[in-house]
Amino acid sequence: METSLFNHSPQKSLAELLRPKNLDEFTGQEEILGPGKTLRTLIEKDKITSLIFYGPPGTGKTTLARIVSQMTQSDFVEVNATDSSVKEIREVCKKAGEKRRIYNKKTILFIDEVHRFNKAQQDVLLPFLEQREVIFIGSTTFNPFFYITPALNSRTLLFEFKKLEEKHLKKVLQRAFEGKVFQLSEEAENYLISISNGDARVLLNRLEILFSLKEDEQTIEKEELKE
Predict the structure, then answer these.
(1) Residue 81: its pLDDT value, please?
(2) What residue spans define the domains of the chain?
(3) For the whole prediction, is pTM greater than 0.70?
(4) 6 — pLDDT class (breaks 50, 70, 90)
(5) Can you list the alpha helix ranges (DSSP code H) found in the chain?
(6) Looking at residue 75, what is its pLDDT?
(7) Which CATH superfamily is domain 2-160 in?
(8) CA–CA dist 102, 112 (Å, integer)
(9) What does the angle CA 70 – CA 137 – CA 142 come to, to the nearest 5 degrees?
């Protein structure tokens, strides 16, 4: 079950619609998710512990956190560090502890931009992680050794995400064009991958604009991407 502290249901973006639902659909990060790698094994054996994912935007950090919750049949609570308070985080953790004790149900608390939490906000997590009442997954584009307290770092496993390579972005494009009557010229594809700079979200957001303007069996050319 996936929930949020801030309930709203805007129209889903292309990036959201194409978000991978399992590890087979997930693209990139083979260094940490390849066969036999520690993180993949923890997920597949349902032995997940608290984690911090760090690296550039658009590389799959949020997506992987959601996949973890689905594969481990855990409740998923997502918050953004810029919008949440100590009180809210404590309430989520307390409810997670109750579910664990009463229903033996795990809860994953995913905190995006966790580097924005101050020390007091980070410290509120510590007793709940110590008692394993909640599974914390943090996401940040910054080096956690500089922005996350040593106490929180010591209670998590850290995994670095890398920019997506050309081959990964081509797979993302392939999924995006499934069922479409138009296509991307080779020159346009190379240009789009270049300006995306390893960020799948940038690629899909740019593509979404073009999709909204296309209605027939035309080929999208490089010039259209520059407009």
Answers:
(1) 92
(2) 2-160, 166-226
(3) yes
(4) very low
(5) 14-17, 30-33, 38-44, 61-71, 86-103, 119-123, 126-130, 144-147, 150-153, 166-176, 186-196, 200-213, 222-226
(6) 96
(7) P-loop containing nucleotide triphosphate hydrolases (3.40.50.300)
(8) 28
(9) 135
